[in-house]
Amino acid sequence: MTLINNERPREIAAIDMGSNSFHMVVARVVGQSLQIISRHKQRVHLASGLDSQQNLDQAAIQRGLNCLTMFAERLQGFEPENVRIAATYTLRQAQNAHVFLKRAESIMPYPIEIIPGTEEARLIYLGVAHTQPDTGRKLIVDIGGGSTELVIGEEFDTHVLYSKHMGCVSYNKNHFQNAKLNSKNFAEAQLAAQQKMESITSKYRKFGWDKAVGSSGTIKAIREVLIADGYSDGVITSKRLNQLIEQVLSFKTTEDLDLPGLTDDRKPVFAAGLAILSAVFSALNIDEMVYSDGALREGLLYEMEDRFRHSDIRTRTANAMAKQYNIDIDQANRVKHAAEYFYDQIDTHPGLAKSELSILLNWGALLHEVGLSISYPGFHRHSAYLLRHSTMPGFNLEQQTVLATLVRFQRKALKLEEMPELSIYKRKHLYPLIRTLRIATALNGQRIDEPLPTIKIKAEKEHWQLTLPLGWLSNNKLLAADLIKEQEYWQKAGWQLSIEEE
What we know:
alpha/beta; Hypothetical protein af1432; EC 3.6.1.11
């Protein structure tokens, strides 16, 4: 008798909102591996919509929304934990990114993460590493529409990673105006890219690699032109790049480009991408480069599956940061355990999984004192600065902002008007986290190992009630004074903290 397993395989999807194109890939989880079942790509040219004030124009916003509308059709029925959407360079730069994200909410019922450049580089490396199983140290180069990521790593671990502000869309806009194509414009684009590379060249050369791998549209397009030109192995070499540059410069405009293997939609940005890659080859003395289909979207997929089956890289990042800044781990754990205990007692706002918010609270509690490494006065502000501006693998920009906000408001005056604008999370989600962390830090202000007694919390919107054991405050007069001060802070913010004993 044959048993049939009717359980449907888990399906996951990743969207890469790039500066030139949006990509979506859907995969089925089969055993220990992923099976790609569909890919979708739409040329959006988001970066070309950035004006001199770094605002996206309405046409670019609409192109992006139109693409997300199409992608949303494919994702009907997907649970939120099975979809990740990452926005890169252009939305990192756009001053009005919040406008785009707000309008996207009604189209795409999943959070859009704006990820830092270093996080983009790490995820690109992960995507390539999973699709390029070769052993040895790899240099990964990914030239996008607005930025270029350069990573050195081995197996699934990165060693050196940078994101540089040079991309085929932005360089086309800056160096090939009115589609003019000549040796002067091309040389200017090359020089600009070489200047961007200058600060990292020595470090990369010193570190070294066994194999150079390129990913994404620019390098794929160059490879396809070389194959059509008779180089069937598709390997990109310095000599072949120089020959290709000569071919390109034989045309007067980017619109005139007529190269075998070059698609019409790639023509406008091809010369700019070629200039950047030739500058990277020159700066790093690259002999040859192969192409990989893996990129950011695959990295998102594989990490989603890793989070499903294995440990979360963000936990490793938080633990490493705690060690780096030599925090008092005993005190951090006291506050973390207390915050966890209190947060479990309250009913939070619907809309986001309580477990997701609880995880952010745990990381915030663990790292609430990183700023002590700078100085005690104002350490909560120092902690916020470090969490907002450090490189934190696994965290998107909004998650770092949330952690920074939690530790910023862990003590002293509640200047809530200083809270940053958020898109994935709302203030109504953060307020309970802030209140919980403040109570946890206040009750552990004595920094002693003696466990806290049974403490009950009842939360009704802005009014929270703390119930302590009878007589406990009279035996802890310093703590009692701290709690009275805390009540004053709450009152000035329009909140209320009631304290009683029973």
